[in-house]
Amino acid sequence: MREYMEFLGAHSPYDRLDSADLRSLAETVDVEFFASGTMIVPEGAEPLHEMSVIRTGSVQILDRGREVDLLTAGDTFGHVSVLSGLAPSMSVRAVEDTVCYQLPDPRNRLVHPEVLQYSHYGSVTARDRLISVGGAVDRLERPLSEVTKGVLWCEPTDSIRAVAREITETGQSCAIFVRGDEIGIVTDDDFRRRVATGEIPVDQPVDTIASIPALSVSGDYTVSAAYLRMVEFGIHHLVVTDARGRPMGIARVVDIAATDVSHPLVIRSAAAKADTIEQLADAARLLNPTLVELWDAGVPPMHLAAVLSTMNEALFRRVVELHTANDELWQSINPSWMLLGSLGRREPLPNSDLDTAVAWSTEGDEQVMDAAVLKAASRAIVEATKRCGLRPCQQGLNPSNDLFNRSAPGWAEAARSWRTEPEDDESVMMVSTMLDARPLTYARLTQPLQSALSATPGRDAYARTLTMNALRQRPPAGFVREFVVEHMGRRRSLNLKKAALRPAASLARALAFRAGDASGSTLKRITTARDSGLLSHPEADDLSSAYQHCFGLVAEHQILALREHRQISSCLDPATITGPERRQLRDAFRAIKSVQDRIASDRYDKAVL
Question: Mind giving me the DSSP string for 164-203?
Fold first, then answer.
């Protein structure tokens, strides 16, 4: 008995029980052993009468055969079925020999069962615990050191001929050196591009063809984070450094590609090499099959979004380069091109629009710039993105609209005017939109805008407006047969972007803005709100998990449409949503509404909001 009390009392949510209730619960414990591989809760099981607390070992949570979580000692499963009386929505299998404490419905035993606040969402997002399970998530999230190769050293003054011979003889693809405080790297690609073509003689020092400084990352990077860096910069080698910044190895894309992701870099390279819009369109045609392949390889939805973001960025950046490189107008104003919306937050879906804006510099009186000429030049770029298969915003969030085409001082002035009108709907829309802005070029030109948006004077007032606006975006109540139950009635389709992703993203943006740092993705903003005390840890976990779960459902729905060459959308037919999916969606909707309700009703927030 004492052992049961001590173990349960050390793990959530049982650590919230008083000693009397903890003893009462311990008295009901029944110990059960499950051998490795045992299906503890099979698919299609009847409603459970006992929940399980893992004492030793671990279990997999499976959604239609696909791993979504790994639970270990102290974790509880089966509680949703016990407490709801419904059949379990997911199956459970022992990963290794596992001992569980079996508990009956605590509501019949405890004086204060309401203190047991079980998590309903751990099975959706605890990817860190999936690392030891295997599969694509494991391979992507493992430490970069596991795919790091040894270093072939050379001196910067060594001849190209000597280094090339050494690389060939050792079977390497690159060599590195240190010159002063900088690391240099020379790769087989450098030899092909600059030496084999006759551009550089083979007797020249190797540092004449090397990349200095070499792009490097620390050894504690994950494989996925390193791979995204490679895709973003279009490179095939990363120098891996230790805690002191000294080279300790080389990470090669060819090794990382063994984790089932390879095509994004092909697209990135093809975009960089395109000399015409037609060639760029050819590269863009690889987008959809690449997304399908990555999904089939088990790449998690949020990671898939990050990869999609880098591919879209590469295509849009090249469109801009092809249109502006030899254009006197664009060269004279050094524009900063910005990505907005989900692409700005690096969390686009396959059907996300390409929302963009531009800030430009000017010398002297900005009125000398011809607005009509600028709009026409911007419109040509927007049209070129269409030809590449990208989707410019249909609502006008692009530089052919005056609202999204301004000088750097003009953006700052506009931001200050928006903040003086916190009740104006257009001002709220513009602030929300530009808080998501991420510059691709000449980032310094956007600093006046960001400073004006985040300036301390008046931030609390605008935070109130953004928060209240976010609270008005409510998820649906649930489902009734083939209908979605919303506040204004019933609908025959479920738009998950509108129903869940937008409310969660808007609330995260508002809270992070109030905390003083609205940068980054929705998940980063939730973490910012949690760290600043605006969200409790459970609230942050629930909101983050609900967002990721709904994002994953939309992504899966759209990837299936891509595979079947159907038109993709964010709308799901309620009649096609299975019972387990409906329960999970209801839980996600409730999680978002629960956080909204707490913020709306909290006395402190009423005073501040």
Answer: HHHHHHHT-SEEEEEETTEEEEEEHHHIIIIITTSSS-TT
